[in-house]
Amino acid sequence: MKPMGTIPADFAGTPLTIAGRSAADWVATAGDTPLFVYDMAAVEARIARFRAAFAGIDLHYAIKANPFAPLLAAMAPLVDGFDIASGGELAMALAADKPARTISFAGPGKRDDELAAAIEAGVTINLESAGEATRALGIGDRLGVTPRLAIRVNPEIELRGSGMRMGGRASPFGIDADRAATVARDVIAAGADWRGLHIFAGSQALDARAIIETQAATMALAGRLAEEIGVMPPLVNLGGGFGIPYFPGEVPLDIAVIGEALSETRANRSAALRDTRFAIELGRWLVGEAGVYLTRVVDRKESRGETFLVVDGGLHHQLAATGNLGTVVKRNYPVSVATAAAEAPTETLSVVGPLCTPLDRLADRVTLPVAQVGDLVAVFMAGAYGVSASPTAFLGHPMPLEILARHS
Ligand SMILES: Cc1ncc(COP(=O)(O)O)c(C=O)c1O
């Protein structure tokens, strides 16, 4: 038997309820499985916790984590900005009625048509290179629109212990810190609407001390750059990287401690940042724990002494849970038999999906209550990087259903 991660407190009861209704009820409402259910109250609770810990700091949502349209529409009035990474996400953010001036667009390889759409809409471009700066200015000229431009900085800092480090090395992301001030001065001199700095050092960190150190180093870097640039940045996006506990032994972040440290760091900032606003940009921390992926048991089989529950969902919808997105060793996300009564776990088995690859394993030798064909198996921690980060076209299975759950 292998351990699995801890089921989020929002869903800890047995049998499983989501926003006050059973899993079977949500499946009946949506019409079928596989189904992602996102509990809006759980998202709102995370936003409230952020607000309590980070007074005076803006909260941005990185919509790549979950761009489900009803979720974006519900989050739009609750957060200060949306961060987008493509022309497709631009359309999604605008469709959610997020005002363009609150949207920022980062990511390497922005095509001219994406830059034009963003500049025309009035979205801030986080410039990833000197070449992109030149193209953005040219496109602004051609359109007769002053582009809103910020510099994404490739910092010397890396976020220690993070699942994905994005600083401290040669990188396609951002302009190297030692060249960032020059590019900033050039775009300001060219007449751009100067929006400030974006410094993102990593993601999925569960070590509060590492985040505190990174934020302090990021603030110091922003101060040095602002002094060099000589024009105060209206906004400094300090990055994010708040992780969530997917796996056994992982402990949730204490964000109150991070908030206290940041408020001290901010109080001691460079005078060159005196009137600057600051933002933290989060994806998975806001939505990851709020999502449950519901699949139905299609088959039970024994093979060489092991039991397999074969379900109708898998890596084509929830790649990360199978250990194939950003992890090297397969560890188990929390799972449960959503239709089981309050019974103690009694059998050890693996939960596998319908794809003809051994990679399609949602849970490896976990102990669960006995489930039969027709029962529902829930995979937790499914609110971020599920549909939007999985190979949904692989093997021609249908797209999953998605639903935003609210307490009635
Ligand atoms: C620039 C940027 N912002 C935000 C995020 C979101 O990270 P997370 O979902 O871990 O908060 C990422 C992740 O790739 C990113 O690259």
Task: Walk me through what this model shows.
- By secondary structure, the protein is of the alpha/beta class.
- The chain has 2 domains: 9-37 and 288-405, Lyase, Ornithine Decarboxylase, Chain A, domain 1; 67-282, Alpha-Beta Barrel (TIM Barrel), CATH 3.20.20.10.
- Helices cover 28% and strands 25% of the residues.
- The chain is built from 10 helices and 21 strands.
- The chain has helices spanning 23-30, 40-53, 69-75, 87-95, 112-121, 130-143, 177-189, 208-229, 255-267, 284-287; strands at residues 17-18, 21-22, 35-39, 58-62, 81-84, 103-105, 124-127, 148-154, 164-165, 175-176, 193-199, 202-203, 235-240, 277-282, 291-303, 306-311, 335-337, 347-352, 361-368, 376-379, 401-405.
- The strands form 4 sheets. Strands 3, 15, 16, 17, 18, 19, 20 and 21 form an 8-stranded mixed sheet that branches. Strands 4-5-6-7-8-11-13-14 form an 8-stranded parallel beta barrel, surrounded by 6 helices.
- Helix 3 links the parallel strand 4 (58-62) and strand 5.
- The radius of gyration is 22 Å and the shape is elongated.
- The structure holds pyridoxal-5'-phosphate.
- The site of pyridoxal-5'-phosphate has 14 residues, from strand 14 and helix 10.
Q: Which descriptors apply to this entry?
A:
Lyase, Ornithine Decarboxylase, Chain A, domain 1, binds pyridoxal-5'-phosphate, 25% strand, alpha/beta, TIM Barrel, 28% helix, eight-stranded parallel barrel, single chain, 21 strands, eight-stranded mixed β-sheet, 408 residues, pyridoxal phosphate
